[in-house]
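Exercise 7b. Backbone tokens:
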């Protein structure tokens, strides 16, 4: 009996000692972890932090298209969050579709009343082109009877001065150079409506148009082509941005596209090559989807990218699929706007599609020689 009691006493002593030892080890482990955490914090504080401004782009362009003036545009405030240096309205800035010029003026006034629009456009420079719905009528071109009057209303709305060449010339094509201490960007805005000749209707289902016979018809017209050639030639800008209201590279969907005039696409590529203009990027809209199209052009030292951003108030929510042999990444079929962020030292453009709550939807990086 004594032996059993003795054994129980010894067992209790051993258990208590083990528990105390275990507690001491756990405490030591916690203390060691605390010391390590303190050391990590001290070391991280000692490391010099890069200033936030070091990560900011040297220049930012925001752009978009397809904006119904009578709908709420929740993206105007999201665009401002990115602190762009320039806003480009890429066409279908309103939906008027009329040869009634009083209606056209009223529709532009409705855009001014769209919440957030004036706040954005009063704070930074604005460049703009038109597409069919703010030009005159769906898919309208050279034969639109009120195009001269529509041009005057367009110029009035965007507050173009009375001595600007666009007040005299036919068409709203225009260019501007934006200079910074680190480099310069030339933005060339095309008019793909005023001179665009007839399209060829397609006999195939789900296709509205088919490409014209090679060499037949024009998008820009002779005068604008001559102007564009001069704008790209003898050009010292670090980057050159060409704005077209309709897509240039994507050509298989059967709607409006430069691909309906294949010889015009070839002509544009040749002019870009011969001009030796640096860092050429194409911007487009119209389609109610956003996508990147990219192709390698022989004799051009960088890939040619067509960044499509559409639309601002409405989009092709029912999109399922569509052929585009030049597409890289995915099609974005929700409302969005585009950003181009320039880094002159790295000769790089970061291209972004952003949507609701400024969410990054897709991104493409390109370095230029």
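Sequence design result:
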């Amino acid at each position: 009996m004594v032996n059993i009691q003795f054994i129980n006493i010894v067992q209790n002593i051993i258990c208590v000692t083990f528990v105390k030892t275990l507690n001491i080890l756990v405490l030591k482990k916690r203390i060691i972890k605390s010391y390590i955490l303190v050391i990590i914090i001290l070391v991280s504080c000692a490391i010099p932090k890069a200033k936030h401004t070091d990560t900011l782009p040297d220049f930012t362009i925001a752009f978009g298209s397809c904006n119904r003036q009578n709908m709420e545009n929740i993206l105007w405030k999201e665009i401002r969050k990115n602190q762009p240096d320039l806003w480009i309205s890429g066409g279908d800035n309103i939906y008027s579709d009329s040869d009634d010029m009083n209606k056209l003026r009223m529709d532009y006034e409705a855009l001014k009343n769209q919440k957030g629009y004036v706040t954005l456009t009063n704070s930074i420079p604005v460049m703009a082109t038109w597409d069919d719905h703010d030009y005159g009528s769906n898919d309208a071109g050279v034969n639109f009877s009120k195009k001269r009057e529509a041009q005057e209303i367009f110029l009035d709305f965007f507050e173009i001065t009375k001595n600007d060449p666009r007040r005299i010339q036919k068409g709203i094509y225009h260019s501007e150079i934006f200079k910074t201490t680190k480099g310069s960007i030339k933005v060339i805005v095309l008019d793909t409506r005023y001179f665009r000749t007839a399209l060829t209707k397609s006999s195939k289902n789900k296709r509205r148009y088919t490409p014209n016979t090679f060499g037949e018809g024009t998008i820009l017209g002779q005068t604008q082509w001559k102007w564009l050639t001069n704008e790209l030639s003898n050009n010292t800008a670090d980057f050159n941005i060409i704005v077209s209201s309709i897509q240039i590279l994507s050509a298989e969907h059967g709607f409006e596209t430069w691909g309906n005039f294949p010889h015009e696409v070839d002509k544009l590529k040749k002019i870009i090559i011969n001009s030796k203009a640096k860092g050429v990027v194409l911007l487009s809209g119209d389609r109610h989807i956003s996508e990147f199209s990219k192709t390698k052009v022989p004799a051009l030292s960088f890939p040619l990218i067509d960044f499509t951003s559409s639309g601002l108030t409405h989009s092709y929510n029912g999109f399922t699929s569509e052929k585009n042999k030049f597409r890289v990444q995915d099609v974005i079929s929700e409302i969005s706007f585009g950003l181009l962020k320039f880094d002159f030292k790295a000769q790089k453009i970061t291209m972004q599609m952003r949507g609701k709550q400024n969410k990054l939807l897709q991104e493409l990086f390109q370095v230029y020689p």
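Instructor comment: DSSP finds eight helices and 15 strands in the chain. The longest helix spans residues 2-46.
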